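Researcher: Next entry in the queue.
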Amino acid sequence: MQDKTSERSTLAMANRAVRAATLGSALEWFDFTLYGAIAATVLPKLFFPALDSTVAVLASLATFSVGMAARPLGAVICGHFGDKMGRRNLMLGTVAAMGITSVLMGLLPTYAQIGIYAPLLLVLLRVIQGFALGGETSGGQLMALEHAPADRRGRYSGLIGMCAPLSQIVANGVLLALSATMEPAAFESYGWRIPFIASIGLVVVGIYIRLRVSETPAFVEMKRLGIASRGRPLQDAVRLHYKTILRMMLFFCGPTALFFLAVVFTLSYLNNTLGVSKQTSFLLLMIGNVCAVAGSIIGGGLSDRFGRKPVLLFALSATFILLLCFYPMLATKNFVVMALAMGLFMGFTQVQTGVQAATFVEVFPTNVRYSASALALTGAGLLAGGSVPVLAAWLLKLCNGSPWGVVAMCGSVNLIALAMIAVGPETAGIDINRTDSLDGGQEEDAQVSGRAPV
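Model: Structure for this entry, 454 residues:
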């Protein structure tokens, strides 16, 4: 009876941890979608009115890039302290910072009200928010999956992975509803602020849940052994695990590149190259995001049953094949065919993201897990995130409107990701309560834990 009570208590704590992680990830992607939409439409007029219209749009989009640029710094610093001081307290700080900056952006005076201080404050808030988001992404995953039972890590990983497409659906739905029910002048005046201010609700719920989540068992055990206080997480991660960090980074470049290709470049391609209406394009993206939610959940669950490696290899092979027929299918301009192309492409892409969190948690030891995961994750974002839509647009122009240059680029990234998974070990079910020894650099209890080699 006592064992059953303890098991129920452990599972309840794991469920709280995954709810906390999904809320943090949802807030991250909700803000990402909202800010990306208004940065190109509303903000240039309100915060950069003194500039030429084209320059104002570029300046507004630059504030978006500033936030993205601050993420790696946040990931590295939060990763270090997360491996030294614990996951829980740091996660309380990141979600609070994310929420406060979102609300302050919703309340920010415009250029007409406070002059040059308006864009300066906007940039400052984006830097703070980007810093917090950099720490939140990896930390939230670790907090959930270090609490998870070994046979449910994939399932929880899939729930975290679904947040990106789900938040895009919600954020676009909110913006569509506001713009449809408000006059353009009212939306520009205060309507765009509503989602940012309302996001405080997510923050309050997120903080409440995280206050009820204990420190992860893996970190508690490492602290008991005295490793947390004596280790140097960032240096140890690079010194001992640079090959694994590089392999995981190159793997995650695959789904990262394909996701941004689908949600950013493909919208422009549908509108400007194929002449598909904006309404149809957004509907196709909505269908793709719905399939992506399903793909993440299914992929995570299947990886608990069949292993991380087989699921990832199958999904990566599927996206490579789909890349070869994706743009020909869109070129038919048949709605059913285009919807099938978007659904399958984004669904199989998100299968990979649904397995990512579990793979990252399992492949690194506890004492460097936060730092190493953050380096791999943000590295993939820098290499294959915002750069892919820009490179794709350049290749489309270079190839005189033909998408095959884009296919060649993304297909190459996809094949590299597949190779990184193929040469790596299976990690499902291994003991994640393992650490590097302080003297020799090898992982302690490696034979017991089933250590995942490079």
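Model: Residues 233-273 form the longest helix (41 residues).
Researcher: Noted, moving on.
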